[in-house]
Design a protein that fits this description.
single chain, 411 residues, alpha/beta, Rossmann fold, two-stranded parallel sheet, 17 helices, 6 strands, binds 2-acetamido-2-deoxy-beta-D-glucopyranose, GDSL_lipolytic_enzyme, hydrolase activity, acting on ester bonds, SGNH_hydro_sf, GDSL esterase/lipase EXL3, GDSL
């Protein structure tokens, strides 16, 4: 999710773990972007995801499955309306925190579909999830009784029942600032809304517009972005820092995030949870880059995270007040203090290591660090799996807290 602070990295250091030095400035920029850990993912998916990302075959499968829909739908509908408190589908937008593998079929260094990722996933397979096991979408879906795993929308083998119960549109490296994804050649938040539009069209073709509208309006939507904007784009790359000081960049991000949330609502999502950013200065990679020798959390990145969260939560409240009259609920979810609690009270939760990742604490992207580091044997002791992403155990605790604190507002 978050990349190196280039100001502290000499080009030669980058080169040592990368490829031969490029000749042109354009190549250089490309290469630097390639080094951004969880960010990169190419434009191929954006430009022609229909063919690239395997939607031709799946669509045929879906059409075949459509016949089954007539049989399936009444029962699905029955379950959904039987208990009013039941959430029947979940949809995620965001970055690598909630990307279950949308980057897999793309040319990018920001993948996690190889070991040791997935070491503790069912079957021990690396699916593209950026952790040792399940990621927040899976945990939410299973804890809410929807399904065991939340698949990536760009998966090869989605069936109708997957579409009906929810998917993730999140892509590693994404952010609310369009420049964040451009620099990382990944899908922007707006591109993810395009995918959502594709989803709506596909579901409409299979079950009709009325049923599609029902699924969307009853679904729970979460958006989890902003970390790449702050850590990669603002702190690492100089472009935004030349344009904005931190408070005005945060204002810009908040405006962009609110516009995203409004668009999502305008597209039919009525129950939206807006998840803030984690304490970014506590990520092992950021401590390595900019923190103290004692490996305390880096304060500036944490201040930036708090500033974003404080402003966006106010704006989300305002937006909710505006839109609740039209039957929408838009709620802010805190992840900052929920994760910080684990970091500050590790023993309480059975953790022994808070500032190092089980796979190391570098900012190097997954493919490179895998070549140079191996995972620790005792991930259970760690809050972080790599330099950026929590372990399944940490996610599990945080997701429990989120459900406990916030989910009632979206039911
Ligand atoms: C958000 O939308 C408003 C209204 O369309 C626009 O004026 C503003 O520039 C947008 N903000 C960003 C950051 O794009």
């Amino acid at each position: 999710m978050f990349p190196p602070r280039l100001a502290r990295y000499k080009p030669t250091q980058l080169r040592a773990v990368s490829r031969p030095a490029p000749a042109t400035a354009a190549e250089q920029q490309k290469r630097l972007v390639g080094l951004l850990p969880i960010m990169a993912s190419p434009t191929t998916c954006l430009k022609d995801h229909a063919s690239r990302c395997g939607f031709v075959r799946p669509l045929l499968q879906l059409l075949v499955a459509a016949a089954a829909a007539a049989v399936l739908l009444p029962s699905v509908h029955g379950v959904a309306s039987a208990g009013e408190q039941k959430i029947s589908s979940i949809f995620l937008f965001g970055d690598s925190i909630v990307d279950p593998g949308n980057n897999n079929n793309r040319f990018t260094e920001a993948k996690a579909n190889f070991p040791p990722y997935g070491r503790d996933f069912p079957g021990g397979v690396a699916t593209g999830r950026f952790s040792n096991g399940l990621v927040p979408g899976d945990l939410l879906a299973s804890k809410l009784g929807i399904k065991e795993l939340l698949p990536p929308f760009l998966s090869d083998d989605l069936e109708l029942k997957d579409l009906l119960s929810g998917v993730a549109f999140a892509c590693g490296g994404s952010g609310y600032d369009p420049l964040t994804s451009k620099l990382a050649t990944t899908l922007s938040s707006t591109d993810q809304l395009e995918l959502f539009n594709d989803y709506k069209k596909k579901l409409t073709a299979l079950v009709g517009e009325e049923e599609m509208t029902r699924v969307i309006s009853e679904g729970v939507f979460l958006t989890v972005m902003g970390a790449n904007d702050i850590v990669n784009n603002y702190f690492t790359l100089p472009l935004r820092r030349h344009e904005y000081d931190l408070p005005s960049y945060v204002d810009f991000l908040v405006s962009s995030a609110i516009n995203f949330t409004k668009s999502l609502n305008d597209m039919g999502a009525k129950r939206i949870g807006f998840v803030g950013v984690p304490p970014l200065g506590c990520c092992p990679s950021q401590i390595t880059l900019a923190g103290s020798p004692s490996r305390q959390c880096e304060p500036l990145r944490n201040e930036a995270s708090e500033l974003f969260n404080s402003r966006i939560s106010t704006e989300i409240e305002r937006l909710n007040a505006e839109r609740s009259a039209f039957g929408s609920t838009i709620v802010y979810f805190d992840i900052y203090y929920n994760l910080l609690d684990l970091i500050q009270n590790p023993a309480l939760y059975g953790f022994k290591e808070v500032s190092e990742g089980c796979c190391g604490s570098t900012v190097l992207n997954a493919a490179i660090f895998i070549a140079y580091h191996s995972a620790c044997p005792n991930a259970i002791d760690y809050i972080f799996w790599d330099g950026f992403h929590p372990t399944q155990k940490a996610y599990n605790i945080v997701v429990d807290k989120l459900i406990q604190q916030n989910m009632k507002y979206l039911m």
